C-alpha cells in the first residue's frame, strides 16, 4: 500500500471508530453488536469467522473486551498504528466527557447531593449482578468454586495489592496442572504482528504487574502510585467494565484519594456516556490530579489491554489449541471471581448498605436488572430518583 492510501486507510479507521465512540451506549455486549454491524456487515473489513475469533480472544483475556476487539480490528486493518487509532477514536469521547464532568462536579459541589446515596445502592446492584453472571460462567464446578473461595479468603484477609497478584499467579499454576480445556477446531485467523513483538509486549505486561507495586511502595511519587493502582485494575479485570468498579473503589476510596461520594457520582456519569466503562478512570484521575491526571489514568488503565492484545495476537492460534494453557486461564478466571467478591464486600457493601431500608432499595434495583432486564442506565436513573427522594 502506497503512503497516501495508507494515510487514507488510517484516517478512515479513526473516523469510523470516533463515530462509534460517540454513539455506542449500553456496555460491552452492545458495543460488540455495534462493531459487528459496522465492521463486518457494512465495511466488510473482516468476515464472520474472523470476527468471532477476535471476540473469543478478547473474552479470553483480562481487560475491557469491547475495547480490545476494537484495537484488534484496527490492527487487522492498519497494523499497530491502526490499533492505536481505533482505540483513540472509540475511547476519547467518553474520556473527555468524564474529565469535564469531574471538573464541573467539583466546582458546583454535586458530590454532596442526596442522589449519591442512591448511586451507592446502584453500585451494589450492578456489581452483584455482574459477579453472579461471572460466577455462573467461570466457576461452574467444585474445583473452580474452591479456587474462587480461596482467592476470596486470602484477599479479604490480606487487602494488599501484592496479595491479588500472588493469588492470580497461584491460580494460573493450579489451573495449568489441574485443568484441560479442549479447543474447537476453527479456521485460522492471521494478524500482522510478529511473534517477537508479541513476546516483548507480554514480557512488559508481566514485569509492570509485578514491579509496579514494589516501586510504588519504595517511592514517594504520587504519579507512580496512581499508575500502579490503575494498571493493576486494568490488568486483573475479567468480564467487562462493571467489574472494574470494586477494584477501583478498593484502590482509591479507603486510601482517601477520592471520597465515596465523589466516586459514586463519577460512576453514575460513566453509565450515562457512550464508549467503554473503563474510561471511569479518567474521572477518578481528574478528581485526584486535574485534567492531566485524567489522561494519565486513562493511559494506565488501558495499557494492560494494549500489551495483552498485541502480545497474544501473534500466538492466538497456538494458544487457543493448547489445552494446558487454556486450563491456566480457567484457574485465573476462577480466582478473579473470588477477588471481585472480596472487593464487593469491602468497600462496596459495608459502605453502602447500612440498614434494612438500604437493603430493600438495593434489592429492588438488583431485581430490575436481573429479572426485569432493565438496562443499566435505567437502574442509574432510578437510583438517582430514589436517592433524591429519600436521602436528601
TrEMBL record:
<dbReference type="InterPro" id="IPR014047">
    <property type="entry name" value="Chr_Tranpt_l_chain"/>
</dbReference>
<keyword id="KW-1003">Cell membrane</keyword>
<feature type="transmembrane region" description="Helical">
    <location>
        <begin position="118"/>
        <end position="135"/>
    </location>
</feature>
<feature type="transmembrane region" description="Helical">
    <location>
        <begin position="283"/>
        <end position="316"/>
    </location>
</feature>
<keyword id="KW-0812">Transmembrane</keyword>
<feature type="transmembrane region" description="Helical">
    <location>
        <begin position="328"/>
        <end position="349"/>
    </location>
</feature>
<keyword id="KW-0472">Membrane</keyword>
<feature type="transmembrane region" description="Helical">
    <location>
        <begin position="230"/>
        <end position="248"/>
    </location>
</feature>
<feature type="transmembrane region" description="Helical">
    <location>
        <begin position="197"/>
        <end position="218"/>
    </location>
</feature>
<feature type="transmembrane region" description="Helical">
    <location>
        <begin position="84"/>
        <end position="106"/>
    </location>
</feature>
<comment type="similarity">
    <text>Belongs to the chromate ion transporter (CHR) (TC 2.A.51) family.</text>
</comment>
<dbReference type="InterPro" id="IPR003370">
    <property type="entry name" value="Chromate_transpt"/>
</dbReference>
<feature type="transmembrane region" description="Helical">
    <location>
        <begin position="12"/>
        <end position="35"/>
    </location>
</feature>
<keyword id="KW-1133">Transmembrane helix</keyword>
<feature type="transmembrane region" description="Helical">
    <location>
        <begin position="147"/>
        <end position="177"/>
    </location>
</feature>
<dbReference type="Pfam" id="PF02417">
    <property type="entry name" value="Chromate_transp"/>
</dbReference>
<protein>
    <submittedName>
        <fullName>Chromate transporter</fullName>
    </submittedName>
</protein>
